[in-house]
Every structure is written in C-alpha cells, then in structure tokens.
Design goal:
binds adenosine-5'-triphosphate, 9 helices, alpha/beta
Length: 242
Amino acid sequence: MTSTNTPVLKIEGLTRRFGGLVAVNEMGLTVHAGEIVGLLGPNGSGKTTAINLISGVLRPDAGSVMLGDTDIAGWPTFKIARLGVARTFQLVRVLDGMTCGDNVRAGLSFNHREGGGSVEDLLARVGLAGHSDRPASELTYIDRKRLELARALALRPRVLLLDEWLAGLNPSELLIGIALIRSLKDEGLSILMVEHVMDAIRSLCSRCVVMSSGRRIADGPTDAVLNDPAVIEAYLGAPQHA
Ligand SMILES: Nc1ncnc2c1ncn2[C@@H]1O[C@H](COP(=O)(O)OP(=O)(O)OP(=O)(O)O)[C@@H](O)[C@H]1O
C-alpha cells in the first residue's frame, strides 16, 4: 500500500523539560497514513522522550499530539493505547511469567477498536505461529522482540511507535527484522521508528526527522536528510551506539 497525504499523527510545538534540561524542544513531525518515518539523532537528543510524550508515558509541558482529529497530548497511557497508539520499548518488555498467548491477550484486552485479530493470527504475523502455549521466558532475544511486537499489534494500531526495535539483532536477524517491519508497512500500517541501524533506515523509511539537543534539525526524504551537512555534523559531533 502506498502512503497518502492524510496525517495519522501530527506533533507540533512538543516540549518537555527535566529541571533545567529541555529534552524535547518545540518538536514537530508528521506521520502520514501508510508510511514509515524514521526518528533519528545522536544519543541523548530526545528521541525516546518524544516517543514517551506521544504514548503518554510522559506528559508534555507544551505542544499538541494530534491523532487524526484528536489532541491526545497529556492523556493517560491506557487511553492513548485504546485509541490506537501502540509501541515497543528500547529495552524489550514482555511478561516473562506468562505464555506467549497470554502476552498477546494482555494486548488484546486494551483493544477497544474493531478487529484486532486472534492470538494465533497475531503470533503468526510476527513469525511465532504455534508458540501460543510456550512460556515467554523461554524465548530467544529476537523472539521476545517479535512477541512484544505482536502485543503492540493486538491494539490494531493507527500508528505504531518502534523504539530501536532492531537494536541488538545479529546481521541475519536484522534482515528478518527489516523484512518483518516492511511486511507491516505493506499491510498499510503507519510507523514512527527510532532507529540507529542505517541499512534499516535506508531500506524502510520514506522520510526521516532528525533531532539534536531536543530540537528538530532536519525533516524530509531519507536520502536528502542523510546527506544533509547539519545531520552529518550532529552525528559526528556526538558519541554513537556501537
Ligand atoms: N526521566 C528523566 N529525567 C531526567 N532527564 C531525562 C529523563 N529522561 C531523559 N532525560 C534526559 O533527556 C535527554 C534526552 O534523552 P532521551 O532518552 O530522550 O534521548 P535519546 O535520543 O532517546 O537517546 P538514546 O539514543 O541514547 O536512546 C537526555 O539528556 C537524558 O539524559
């Protein structure tokens, strides 16, 4: 499916301070229906804080977060999830004491929208078909990531927020992970992904937004953004992930 010009998510003037530090500073970005937007920037530039503000984990000090026609800025997490904003976490979060199926059921319990799909369908969609009764604690790292993704998909998201979902995967797993994310886009999902893996960004993201010190310093087609001197300088001037 191709992207349209309909904004699914539109952020304007988003600001969050921690004491004297402005972690997110009048940030703006738009995700259109059916596109993958990359949210890039050096370590500490405010990407995860931005995701936390969109998903309700943190309350903004200022700004709007429009999901369709609704400003969800400052809403509690569960309400935002019910409206169809799903996310994964930088440090993968699954419920280890439960089976894979129950992890997905936990996601489905938040789905107040029509047609989230069955537990088996959701597990199959991420490559975990037949694992419903398996304890989550037995899963490998990539399978834990898949399970977290299945739980997010159970919300039948209008927008999916991925916070470094590909981090920590080995080269062959990375190819699988990229193909999985591409399959979600092909289903028409709208995705905002924080990512440092450049191959993934190049192959998945039609557009990228770059943050530096809380501010947006670039926003445009991926190739143009990655060749922008201000972006190159922001990356070279700061320590990077391995
Ligand atoms: N709860 C908090 N309290 C105080 N400062 C915070 C808090 N969360 C984030 N920060 C600070 O806000 C800034 C932005 O952090 P954030 O985690 O959003 O960056 P990031 O771009 O996601 O970095 P990384 O790529 O390393 O994950 C950093 O200086 C960080 O130390």
